[in-house]
Amino acid sequence: MRPPIIPLNQNSSQSEVVFSREQEEKNLYNSEDLVELFPFGVSIANEIQRPFLLLKDKKEELTLPVAINPLEAGVTLTQSSQQLIPTTPHKFAELLLESLDIKIEKCIFSEIKGHYQYVRLYLENHPRYGSLRLRADEAMSLCLHMKTPIFATRAFIQKSKVMSAEIEGLSKGLEGHRALFANHHPYLM
């Protein structure tokens, strides 16, 4: 049984950050190959399975599943809700970037390593760096909050579908071993 997909309002492991100087940038894609993607929904399952942010192209023919952590899923859902008072943990980052006159120009999915997707955020007006590379699961809610255009190639979308199926398969294999997920934290109920 597929986990439910929570629609998003259309209006709405270890960290690794790698900066690169603009002159060192290598485009592994042609700009004609890039497909712009928009938030469609968040797929949330049980506590064992990772949530997925679903991004679709304008015609809703292509779907990019982005494996995110539960915190990122919660922030994404909270930011997109019209029934809650708008709140986000990204307000400080937004104000800081604005005060420095730095803009995240675009977000491009660049690679998959293991079961993690990586994006490259292109920066406008940064005094030293043209872009930075980080895990997609740590950047998606910020990009959605900042209304940063998000792109991927068709080849990347296809590779991500394979990765998504692998993650789902691993989760199903772990469901039989509930003891691995026992609560060992004194503050969690």
Q: Supply the CATH superfamily name.
A: Bifunctional nuclease domain
Which series of helices and strands comes N to C? EEEEEHHEEEHEH
Instruction: Give a short account of the largest sheet.
Output: 9 strands, mixed
- Cα distance, first to last residue? 27 Å
Detail the poorly predicted runs: 10-15, 19-26
Oligomeric state as shown: single chain
SS element count, helices: 4
Mean pLDDT: 78
- Cα radius of gyration in angstroms: 17 Å
Find the count of extended strands (DSSP E, 2+ residues). Answer: 9
How would you sum up this structure, described in words?
- The chain has 189 residues and is of the alpha+beta class.
- The protein has one domain (5-173): Bifunctional nuclease domain.
- The chain is 25% helix and 29% strand.
- The protein has four helices and nine strands.
- Strands 1, 2, 3, 4, 5, 6, 7, 8 and 9 form a nine-stranded mixed β-sheet that branches.
- A hairpin with a 2-residue loop joins strand 6 (103-113) and strand 7.
- The chain starts with a strand and ends in a 15-residue tail after the last helix.
- Mean pLDDT is 78; it is low at 10-15 and 19-26.
